[in-house]
Amino acid sequence: MARSAVRLNVSEPRSRRRLPPAARREQLLACALRVFARRGISAARHAEIAAAAGVAVPTVFVYFPTRAALVDAVLAEVERFYIALAEQVHASRRPAPEVVTAHATAFARSIDDHPDHASVWLNWSSAVRTEFWPRYQGFEARMVALIARTLTRGQRQGSISRAITAPDAARIVIGAAHLIAQQKLSGQPQTEISRFFDAVVQLLVSSLARRTHGTGTVPAARHQGVML
Questions:
Q1: What gap in Å lies between CA 93 and CA 77, rounded to an integer?
Q2: What's the rounded Cα separation, in Å, for the pair 96 and 196?
Q3: What is the residue-wise DSSP string for 9-58?
Q4: Is 132 in the same domain as 42?
Q5: Are residues 101 and 53 in the same domain?
Q6: Could you give the angle at the alpha carbon of 186 between the alpha carbons of 180 and 188, nearest 5°?
Q7: Whole-model pTM above 0.85?
Q8: Number of domains present in the structure of the chain
Q9: What is the pLDDT of residues 7-66, one digit of tens each?
Q10: Domain range holding 107?
Q11: Which residues partner with 17 through β-bridges?
Q12: Is CB count within 10 Å lower at the N or C end of the chain?
């Protein structure tokens, strides 16, 4: 009888088992990201997260006592995810155009594994007339600083044009990320997504790279078509 009871406990859905507080919070945050991605930052509610997690609504309030706390946790996770990705890529000392290409590739691939992060980010980045906008501006400023550091290095080394400031060029990179995310999240055929990605990266790198003397050609980073 005891053995049968043990089997039943093991086979219970994860959401219905008693989890350590850290594991439960992680589970609820993942469900919150999913709900926010589907419903939008302004519309998601505790009850929807509880339904997605298979727990009682009061359980969600234990970990996120207010809606403001819930939104804060979701936006903090999105910010943490993309800052960590950027920091890892831009730690490289490769030529700046190659690092920019690597960042675009890593970002595009992350959408496949973390589509909810991308959806919430897109929603957040357009929430200009909401209380979430000042926080987004702070997040974007951190991202601009990270990318601009690489571009400034490229300007010193002669691989990035000085015709545009590094912070402005970094904002162009972020704008390109929006285009890539929109294409991938819109369910376009894989071949079209790959072709579009290649075009965006080539245009991006070409616009930033320093032109060679008198030829008008652009020494772009080596980039081959990536199935994203």
A1: 27
A2: 22
A3: HHHS-GGGS---HHHHHHHHHHHHHHHHHHH-TTT--HHHHHHHHTS-HH
A4: no
A5: no
A6: 85
A7: no
A8: 2
A9: 333 333 445 568 899 999 999 999 999 999 999 999 999 999 999 999 999 999 999 999
A10: 74-221
A11: none
A12: N
